[in-house]
Amino acid sequence: MDRDAAKYLLLLACPALLGQGFVREEKPVVVDGATELWRLVWEHPPKPACNPEDEVWYTCPCAGFAFGERGQLDLVRIRNGQEIDRLSLTPMFGHDDFPFVPPEAVVQRWERLPRDRLASDARQFARRVHVRPVVSVINLADYDHDGRSTEFFLQTGVLPCGKRMGVVIGLSPGNLRLHAFGSALHPEKPLDLQKPQWDALRSSAGPVRVMDWPCGDHGADTETEIELQATSAGIRAVRREFECTEHGRGKLLRKTQL
Fold first, then answer.
1. Which of 1, 25, 179, 227 could form a disulfide with 238 if both were Cys (CB 3.0 to 4.6 A apart)?
2. Count of CB atoms situated within 10 Å of the CB of 161
3. For residue 99, what pLDDT is reported?
4. How far is residue 67 from each of residues 50, 63, 156, 201, 251, measured CA to CA in Å?
């Protein structure tokens, strides 16, 4: 029995320990010269999500979630041994194609590999998956380009087919408490983007345009792109929608600030 499984059993046998939560991951983070510990904490022992024993793990709604866990999840900041901040992540989950109802937080636990689709014996396959290294969720980066790597991408849903949607969680100059990043126009509303779009913003040195939905994708009769830029006022986000023609993208139909 591995250490994680033993801790699950301990928590189940001792309900009084549940108040401490189950630590999914923890990582040191330097914030303004001080080192903190950031923890992903399940409020209760999590349940399987898109697990290898379930034949739906390879379907589109499980993209990015296989092989994962689900439940009520918080992000906690600890400094000098004391909790100084906590953010509930569960309310951020629940897209139209989200496979878990009622909405629960879901994070991948073991990596999905291309060869996994070739597995034939579900029980043997599950055993192989469960000994893989645990996937890191708190992958810190500087998405808002303020010079501090105090943010990470959190997948919160999937759109057809396999488009991984999510938010960026962390700290910004205008908000030193844990939060989901919004746009400059709507800082109070989490900005929900595809992972490649967040990746493009993180790597950009200025405005960057990223495809959102191409012509013909699942019958789309228009094409959209997102323009993103990290500014001192926040993340500037603009969606442009174009007509689709027999030769591809046509004229601009509308431009919307997000």
1. 227
2. 12
3. 61
4. 5, 9, 15, 27, 42
